[in-house]
Design brief:
This is Glycerol-3-phosphate dehydrogenase [NAD(P)+]. It is an enzyme of class 1 (oxidoreductase). The chain is of the alpha/beta class. Helices cover about 50% and strands about 10% of the residues. It folds into two domains: about 5-190, Rossmann fold (3-Layer(aba) Sandwich); about 195-370, N-(1-d-carboxylethyl)-l-norvaline Dehydrogenase, domain 2, CATH 1.10.1040.10. The protein is built from 18 helices and eight strands. It has an eight-stranded mixed beta sheet, sandwiched between helices. β2 (about 35-40), α3 (about 45-55) and β3 form a beta-alpha-beta unit. α9 packs parallel to α13 and α9 (about 190-215) crosses α15 (about 290-305).
Length: about 375
C-alpha cells in the first residue's frame, strides 16, 4: 500500500486501540490499512505526538512508517469518543485499572477486543473475563485475537493470519471483517477459552525453549519440549472447557512455533537470558516491554493444580525463575519421566494417535485448504 492510498479518508468503522507498544501500534496499523478510522491511545504525550505527527513509533517499531490516516492521542476520552470497537493492548496485570479509567468514556454497547495474552495474577482470570467483570458487558460483546503474530514482522507487512474468537459468532465475524487487509487474514471461532489459553500457554513454553537455548542445548531438546509442551497446553485448556482442535490451530500450534523459534519473541529472549545465568530481576530490567510469560507461570500452575493437570515443563520453568533449579538441569527433567508413559493426552484426547500427530495433520490440512479444512476456525 503506497503512501498516497494510505492518505485517503477512512471509510470504515470508528475504532480505538488502547496501548501504543509494539503490538498495539502494529494492530492500529493493521486496522488503518484495512480502511478503519483508527485512533490509538498512548499513555505518554510525547509518543502520541510522534505517532500523530511523524507517523513513527521509534521506541517500539523503529524504521516502520505508519499509515498517514492513523491518528494518536494521549487523551483517553478523545481516543474512545464514538468508537464502535475498542482494541486493548496493555500489560495484562494493568488491564483492570486501565478499564476502570476507560469505562466512563465508552459508548453504549461497544465491542471490546483483547489483544493480550496473559492471566491476571490476583484472580487467575483470562483477559476477556477481566473485561466482562470490570465493564459489566455481556460475553457476546467481547472478542479476543490470537495467533502467530510477532509485531515487527507484521508491521513490515509480512503476510500472516490470526484467529478472532467470541462466544458470539456474529461478533467474531464483525471484528474479523475490520481486522484484515492484504497482509493480515483473520479466521473466526467461538472457542474463547482455547484461543485465550493457547496464547497464554505458548508464552510459557517459549520461556522454556529460551532457557535451554541459553544453556547450550540443541534442536533435539527444543523439539522435544515444543512437542510435549503442546500436549501440556492441550491438556490444560481442555480441562477448562476448550476444544482440543483450537490448540492445534493458529492460536495454539501456530503461535507456539512462531514464539519458540523467533528472536523477536520477548518470552524466548527472557528465557535465553535466564539460561545464560542472569537472575530474574536482571532479566526483567533488561526487557523493554512486558514479558507476559514470566508473569503467568504462577497463576497457570495454580489453575492447573485446581484441575489436577500435570504440567512438568511449566513447573520446571517456575523452579528456574525461583532459582531452585539450574538452567542447565532443566532439559532432562522436561523430557524424561520417572516411569515410561504413553504419549497420549489425558482422557483419550488423542485417540487414534498422539496429540502432536493430530496437531500436525490439522496444520497441514489448513495449509492445503487455505484454512477451509478447519472445523472451528472459519474464514
Amino acid at each position: 500500500m503506497n503512501r498516497r492510498s494510505q492518505a485517503r479518508r477512512p471509510h470504515g468503522k470508528r475504532v480505538a486501540v488502547l496501548g501504543a507498544g509494539s503490538w498495539g501500534t502494529t494492530f492500529a496499523k493493521i486496522l488503518a490499512d484495512g480502511g478503519a478510522d483508527v485512533v490509538v491511545w498512548a499513555r505518554r504525550p510525547e509518543l502520541a505526538r510522534e505517532i500523530q505527527e511523524a507517523k513513527r513509533n521509534s521506541d517500539y517499531l523503529a524504521g516502520v512508517n505508519l499509515p498517514l490516516n492513523l491518528r494518536a492521542t494521549s487523551r483517553l476520552d478523545l481516543a474512545l469518543a464514538g468508537a464502535e470497537q475498542v482494541y486493548v493492548s496493555v500489560p495484562s496485570q494493568a488491564l483492570r485499572e486501565h478499564l476502570k479509567i476507560a469505562a466512563p468514556h465508552l459508548r453504549a454497547s461497544p465491542t471490546v477486543v483483547s489483544l493480550m495474552k496473559g492471566v491476571e495474577k490476583s484472580t487467575g482470570l483470562r483477559m476477556s473475563e477481566v473485561m466482562a467483570d470490570v465493564l459489566r458487558v455481556d460475553a457476546s460483546q467481547i472478542a479476543v485475537i490470537s495467533g502467530p503474530n510477532l509485531a515487527l514482522e507484521i508491521a513490515k507487512e509480512q503476510p500472516t493470519a490470526a484467529v478472532v474468537s467470541s462466544t458470539s459468532l456474529e461478533t467474531a465475524q464483525s471484528v474479523a471483517s475490520v481486522a484484515r487487509n492484504r497482509y493480515f487474514h483473520s479466521f473466526v471461532n467461538t472457542d474463547v477459552i482455547g484461543t485465550e489459553f493457547g496464547g497464554v500457554l505458548k508464552n510459557l513454553i517459549a520461556v522454556a525453549i529460551g532457557i535451554v537455548d541459553g544453556a547450550g542445548y540443541g534442536e533435539n531438546t527444543k523439539a522435544s519440549i515444543i512437542t510435549r509442551g503442546l500436549v501440556e497446553m492441550t491438556d490444560f485448556a481442555v480441562a477448562f472447557g476448550a476444544h482440543p482442535e483450537t490448540l492445534s490451530g493458529l492460536a495454539g500450534l501456530g503461535d507456539l512455533i512462531a514464539t519458540c523459534q523467533s528472536p523477536l519473541s520477548r518470552n524466548n529472549t527472557a528465557g535465553r537470558l535466564l539460561g545464560q545465568g542472569y537472575h530474574l530481576s536482571d532479566v526483567v530490567n533488561q526487557m523493554q516491554q512486558t514479558t507476559e510469560g514470566l508473569a503467568s507461570v504462577g497463576p497457570i500452575l495454580e489453575l492447573a493444580r485446581a484441575k489436577g493437570v500435570e504440567m512438568p515443563i511449566i513447573e520446571q520453568v517456575r523452579q528456574v525463575l525461583a532459582g531452585t533449579l539450574a538452567p542447565k538441569d532443566i532439559a532432562p527433567h522436561l523430557t524424561t519421566d520417572d516411569e515410561p508413559q504413553g504419549e497420549r493426552t489425558k482422557d483419550g484426547q488423542a485417540q487414534g494417535g498422539s496429540a502432536v500427530r493430530r496437531a500436525l495433520q490439522r496444520a497441514f490440512d489448513q495449509l492445503r485448504d487455505g484454512g477451509r479444512g478447519a472445523r472451528r476456525d472459519r474464514p
